[in-house]
Design a protein that fits this description.
Layout: E1 15-16, E2 27-32, H1 36-40, H2 42-51, E3 59-63, H3 67-77, E4 83-89, E5 92-98, E6 101-104, H4 112-118, E7 125-128, H5 149-156, H6 164-178, E8 184-187, H7 194-207, H8 211-220, E9 226-229, H9 237-245, E10 254-256, E11 261-264, E12 281-282, H10 286-310, H11 316-321, H12 323-337, H13 349-360, H14 369-373, H15 376-383, H16 385-393, H17 399-412, H18 429-439, H19 444-448, H20 460-476, H21 478-489
Parallel strand pairs: 1-5, 2-3, 2-7, 3-6, 4-10, 7-8, 11-12
Antiparallel strand pairs: 4-5, 9-11
Helix pairs in contact: 4-6, 6-7, 7-8, 10-12, 10-13, 10-15, 10-17, 12-21, 17-18, 17-20, 17-21, 20-21
GO molecular function: oxidoreductase activity
Protein name: Mannitol dehydrogenase family protein
Pfam families: Mannitol_dh, Mannitol_dh_C
Length: 490
């Protein structure tokens, strides 16, 4: 059945449909970046609220700034901005249609429709999921990079910006001129201190053209920090077929695990929906939750990604079924990550680790190892290097994390250990591959040319064991190197 407002009542009984009148929804949020994660996470929470008869003036207007966003808009517009979310438990699946989005703005090079929508008084939140690597952060300093060509363009052309952050600054300029209170900017990307990172990008781009506006944004606009979590694989033929099997003709289905979590700072001067009614946690300790999640879940993904990728393992659950990779994950998390994660309110870290291992093992998700290996140049400095730094600073044993760094380098050499070519899997793939090739004979070349490590590159506590680990991986293979590590800490 083709998905649309007109066919909702005709869908199979097993598919849950919106339990509210979509005609009564009014927009309150513009969301930039309507990929799978947003549509399986924030939009689902709002759908739950609307089903309770709550907050129906907080519907979502979708938006985007990339070519892929235009394709998503076309797909969703053709089905009245409806789409299906299929939750996959190990032994069951549940499908529902999400109706929280009521429009999707045209995607234009100058972001004119986006700026106009964000300037409307009824828009009180602008939210974003533009990927971890989309915030123009200098990997060497961890700070916003105003010299990036996209940002420089927006500084020279503030009324026709290219980036989401330039568009947000342009809309805030219009609201200030019109005497309209600013919206809250709510980042939903997986970044440490994501509200602060977003503020740095918006204020930074504004400062290039209008320092007074930048100061006003810094003083008047709220950027709450948040922690978001739900494993949401990319949609491919398998997921499309799954939707069809459920009786859905959906051009943009999403599959995901049953688990979801959202932790937010309660800083919304322009108002917000009552998300606590549907399980969102509001706290002033978001930093503790995000550190736990980033180091254990996202760091855990990296720990299994590169051994799995080098071993030609396609799916995450298959990597978890490999006894050695599973043991490597459990051991590194237990010995080298958990001891340096600060306490989290209401949470036992060993229990959280066990939950993560269980989630990774779900065979129905069919998340790919390649997805976990993607964009290591942005992910390693956020997910692995902080644990490595804390461990070394405390005089701890970081051999597993150092071995993981060597496995990442070996992966970036561009072939698996059976000799299969690895397709480019990082925005900086060419330079990474070149340095990884040189590092086979000169390991320090990987560290010196890799901004992920900063001053650790010349720290002998890291550089020397890294060189030894990388040479061991090349000479004997990753399985032998991991086996030696596991036996040494048993």
């Amino acid at each position: 059945m083709t998905l649309s407002n007109a066919t909702l009542s005709q869908l199979p009984a097993a598919v849950v449909t919106p339990a509210y009148d979509r005609k009564q929804l009014k927009p309150g949020i513009v969301h930039i970046g309507c990929g799978n994660f947003h549509r399986a996470h924030m939009a689902v929470y709002l759908d739950d609220l609307f089903a309770r008869g709550l907050a129906q003036d907080w519907a979502i207007i979708g938006a985007g700034v990339r070519a892929g966003d235009a394709r998503m808009r076309d797909a969703l517009a053709a089905q009245d901005y409806l789409y299906s979310v299929i939750e996959l438990a190990p032994e069951s699946r549940a499908a529902r249609v999400i109706g929280a989005m009521t429009d999707f703005l045209p995607v234009c090079d100058d972001n004119g429709p986006l700026i106009a929508a964000m300037s409307r008084p009824d828009i009180r939140i602008v939210s974003l999921t533009v990927t971890e690597g989309g915030y123009y952060i200098d990997p060497a300093t961890g700070a916003f990079n105003p010299a990036h060509p996209d940002i420089r363009h927006d500084g020279l052309n503030p009324e026709t910006p290219r980036t989401a952050f330039g568009a947000i600054a342009a809309a805030l300029r219009l609201r200030r001129s019109a005497g309209i209170a600013p919206f809250t900017v709510m980042c939903c990307d997986n970044l440490p201190h994501n509200g602060q990172v977003t503020a740095a990008a918006v204020v930074g781009v504004a400062r290039l053209s209008d320092p007074e506006l930048a100061d006003w944004i810094a003083a008047q606009v709220a950027f709450p920090n948040s922690m978001v979590d739900r494993i949401t694989p990319a949609t491919g033929p398998r997921e499309q077929a799954m939707a069809r099997d459920l009786g859905l003709d959906d051009a943009a289905p999403v599959t995901c695990e049953p688990f979801r979590q959202w932790v937010l700072e309660d800083r919304f001067p322009a108002g917000r929906p009552p998300l606590e009614e549907v399980g969102v946690v509001f706290t002033d300790r978001v930093d503790a939750f995000e550190t736990m999640k980033i180091r254990i879940l996202n760091g855990g993904h990296a720990i299994i990604a590169y051994p799995g990728g080098l071993a030609d393992i396609e799916y995450v659950h298959e990597a978890m079924a490999d006894p050695q990779i599973r043991a490597f994950l459990d051991t590194v998390l237990t010995r080298e990550v958990l001891p340096f994660v600060p306490p989290v309110p209401g949470t036992r870290l060993p229990d959280y680790k066990a939950l993560i291992i269980d989630r990774f093992s779900n065979p129905m998700i069919a998340d790919t190892v390649r997805r976990l290996c993607l964009d290591g140049s942005n992910r390693q400095p956020k997910f692995i290097v902080p644990s490595l730094r804390d461990n070394l600073a405390a005089g701890g044993d970081a051999r597993g994390l150092i071995l993981l760094s060597a496995l990442w380098c070996r992966y970036c050499a561009g072939t698996t250990e059976t000799g299969l070519a690895i397709a480019p899997n990082d925005p900086a793939w060419d330079s990474l591959t070149h340095r990884a090739g040189v590092a086979r004979q000169t390991p320090q070349a990987w560290l010196d040319g890799n901004e992920a490590y900063g001053d650790l590159a010349r720290d002998s506590r890291f550089a020397t064991p890294f060189a030894n680990a990388l040479q061991d991986v090349w000479n004997r293979g990753s399985r032998a190197a991991i086996a030696d590590y596991l036996s040494s800490v048993a």
